[in-house]
Every structure is written in structure tokens, then in C-alpha cells.
Design brief:
This protein has about 625 residues and is mostly helical. It is built from 30 helices and two strands. A two-stranded antiparallel sheet has the order 1-2. The two termini are about 35 Å apart.
Length: about 625
Amino acid sequence: MRTFRSSRALPAILATAVLAATLTIPAAGQKGPESILPPGFGDPNPPPQPVAPARPRPKSTPQSAPGTPSTATPAPRPAAPVGPEVGSPIAAPTPSVPALLPTEVPEFGATPSPVATPPSPTDFGAFVRADMPSYARRSLAQVGVAGPAEGAMAPSAFGRADGRYLETLMRRLRAPIASRWVSIALRRALMARIDTPRGVNGADFAAERAWLLVRMGESVAGRAMAQAVDTEDYTPKMFEAAMQAALASGDPAALCPAAEDGAALGRERGWVLARAMCAGLSGTATKAKPLFDAARKSRVAGGIDLMLAQKVIGNTGRARQATTIEWDSVPYLTAWRYGLAMAMGVEIPERLLETSAPAVQGWRALSPSLTPGARAGSSEIAAARGILSSAALVDLYAAIDAGDDQPPAAASVARNLRAAYDGTDADARITALAKLWDEPKGYEARYARLILTAGAAARIPTSIEKPDVTRLVAAMLSAGFDTPALRWREKAVRGGDAWAMLTLIDPAMSTVSYGDVSGYAGENDTTGMKRRMLFAALAGLGRLSAADVAQGAEALAVRVNRSDSWTRAIAKAALDDQPGTVVLLAATGLQSPSWRGVPPEALYHICAALRAVGMVGEARMIAAEAIARL
């Protein structure tokens, strides 16, 4: 089944994105205890709070790169106001306790009991931590897990931006965002080995990055970010982010290096149970039992949360204990329940998964404890969100095709994918592609099939009769195959979607006239949104003259000159050459479940800012994605 892979080299932009997908990042802490758990992880959702962008700082010799959006140029408001994270996998009834462990367990009472003081290490033979020598300690001045050579951004990606401002943007960002390509670029920024911005602690800043990655569904990257900070440097915020990352990846053992200090902090009750679980995982059941009994007596947790921890402990050591997990009375899924259940191979009911946070789909797609067939649905969603690459998705279906006893639906997709690559002739391959494209009905599922078939689409010859050029081009561009896609330029009907996407990504077309834009009628586009998006993208990419921009803005009611806090912030970040800040603000402007909720003005400013900081390739792919997904 490995023949699914295309022999063509990936373009540079895709190679960067795929490389970044395999990386992970460290997390950070703070001076005072501050919860970074979103409303879904313990609290009801508070009302959205507006973000006040940092004030532009005076520069001694300001210089504007060609095409850089001017801070005086007005622009549109982001797709959705920046607000607190919503839709998380936890919906706890007690607003005062931002904890992983819910408080609906009867023995907790109406108000959660305070966390009991952890037992003394001398009483329970807790782990002895060896102090790390100074020469082996990692600096907090630069934290991350990847550099430019691995596909991440440069250490100066956030420039001299205020760290507190960046943390606020990260904390309030709602994931997932509308664009797959912006998600990929954001991961590259968050995972980078970057200089800690001014005004924040390095561990705290890493914690915000780790927590945002977890909320994006990037569980592996989030865990790596947490592990990029020495546990001796953990802050309260870092402890919370590390707990979330470990649970999202279904790896309670990742808690063990910080379990002692986390429990002593007394901030999150999960760390108290983590001590007992880590004692069990280390094979010292005689130490685990007293720790677990003390946690139970102090009412740290109850119900299924306590039973899952007991299952972790009971499955270690010589005296294994059978613990049955019943989900009937469990009203919702929490990160604690998800992480421990995945670690112990406990099946989670579908009803709980269906009502969980969007990030859970990404966590499951990256989980090594699930079979390829069980991961198929989540993996397609994860690919549409930029968590998995096209190659990774093809590999998954190759494993399904090679395995036995696979889910019928996934096995059918694998067979069609094989035919799309290995069909007897081009007609057979294009027929298999059409089956894969026509089957899904959901918004993300349809785009995921384009990503899945990108390599197969690149192998279709242009000589085929009556090809589906629009979907062939969209499939190739979903994975960054711009060179193979440009082979179809002569076959693309002028004024159609394929023509629009190829026009956006073709580096040979330096300028386009407004007449070309006005002659474009997007397929299945009764509202004219595609035409407005094409105009906004071309204007942002600098492909229209000033006169054409003015004419198009008035004719299509795209207010590219509107100014607000977001447009000024992203223009200032571009002017200061801060690609990391630009990408973070681009994600802020794309907080929408789909491209239908993104105003054309936002696309204009995103493309202009990315072009100004040298990310032209990403800007082109984002613009083409907007046409493909509308």
C-alpha cells in the first residue's frame, strides 16, 4: 500500500509544515498561581472579553517593507472577537474551581473540599529527586523544541512584542480556527525555540504555548513543550499546562517527573493522585497504596475519577487488581477521564466523545493506543485542521488496507484510495477519486478527502478527457502541491474556481486586473463570497493596482481601509517583522468554525501581513484554501 505515496518532492512550504507536525514543545510557568484552564475545563464559560492589542511602540528609524500594511491604513474586524476558550471537553458545575477533577461526585458535597496536605515523603517513601547540576540546566531565556532547520520559526519570531500581550492572545484564542494552513503556521511558531519575550517568565510563556497546542488538538506537541522546561523551573501555570498535555496524550507517566512538586503546590487535586499513580507505575505498590488511601480519605476525588486512578495503580506491580469502569452515570468527559481511560485501554462511550471539545478529535488521531481503524474518522478531521499531513493520512489508510478486521467504512476508503493510486489507467484512477470526494457530507470531511487524495491527484495526466479540474486542483493545493497543480492552468475554465485558485498561487502572474475579478463567478456561490475573497486575497498579495483595489473595494463592498484594534495590531507586527506575532494575530482573525464566517477584509490583512514578513507561500495557500472550502 506504500505505493499511495507520490514520488514527487513536496514543495518547500509543505515540507516545512510536515516537519513541524512531528515536533513538540516545552511549557512555561508564572510567579503567582493563575489558572490557564478554559471555562470548559472546570468552569462554565464566562462572557467573551475583548483583547486590547499592545500599543505601537515608537521606533527610532521606522522602515516599511514593500507592501507592508500601513498602521494608518484602515481594515476589517476579525472573524470573531477574541474571547475565552469554549467547547472544551469539560463542563464542570462549580465555577469557583478551575480543576481537572469535577465536583459533581456525591461525596464532595455542594462545595469542593480543600485539597488535603500531601503526605510527607518520609512517611510514604516518595520519589527522591536528584538536583540537576547547573551546567545541565536549560535556560529559560530561549525555550522550544525546534529550530528553522526542523521547520519551526526563528528565535526572533516574536521580536520585541510584549510577552503579556502575546500570552493574552494565546489564552483567549478559540480553537480550531478556519484555516488549515494558518494552523500549520501557528504550530511552527508555538513550537519554535524562541527568545522569551519581554515582561514574562520563560516557563510561563512556554506553558501558554503548550496549553494552546493542546486546545488545538496538538497533544504530542503540547506534551513536548511541557517537557522542554526543567521541572525545577516549573511555575504554577506550568504545572497546570503539563497536567493537561500529559492527559491529552493519554500518558500519565509524563506526570511523574513533576508529581512531587505538583502535589506539594496544592493547586490541582490531580497532582495528589498523580503521586500515587506514579508510585504504582514505578513498581512500588507498597508506596502507592498508602498514597492512594490518603487521597481517598481526604476526598481529593471520587466516583469514576478515583476509580480510573485506582485502575492505573492496580495494573502495575505484581498484585494486579481488576477495576471495572462504569460510564452510565458519567454526564460528560473531562481531560482526566479521557487521559486515564486512554492510558488503560478503557473504551469511552460514543455519546461522551460526541459532546466533547473539538480538540479531542486531534488527541485521538495522535493516540498510539487506538487502532488505525478506530482513528480513521478523527484523523480525517485532524488533517482538515492541519494536525496531520496528507502523507500521514495516506499512511493511516495504508495500514487499514493491510490490516484485518477493520471497520467496513474505513476499509472501503482504503480500497478506493489504493485504486486512486494503482488503478489500471487514468480513467479508473479518476473514478476512484470521484468516489472518495463524493462520499463525505460534512464540511471538514469533504476537505479532508481532498487532503487524503492530494498525491493521487498529482498523478493524473492532463490529457484525460472531462477531468474534474476544480477538485483535482483543490486536492493538490490542500497539501501544498503547487507545481503539479499549475500543470492544469490551460484546462482550467477562465472564471471558474480552478482558475481562481491557480491565479492566486501562480508566482508567474505578477498582476491581475479588476476585470478578471469581476468576471469570476464562484461555483455554487449564490452570495458572491468567493468573488469577494478572491479580490481581498489578490489585493493583500499585492497583485492588484491601487486603482483596481479602490474600484473593487467599492464595487464589492470589501472595506479594506477599515481600521480597528486587530488590523492595527497585525499591521504593526508586520511592520516590526514579527512573523510569529503575525501568525498568532492571523489565527485570532480566523476564529470561525468555517470560512463562511470569515470576512473578506480579514483575509486581505492576513495576506498582506504574511507577505510583508516573507511568508508569501503561506499567504497564497491560505487564499487558495478559502476558495476551495467556501
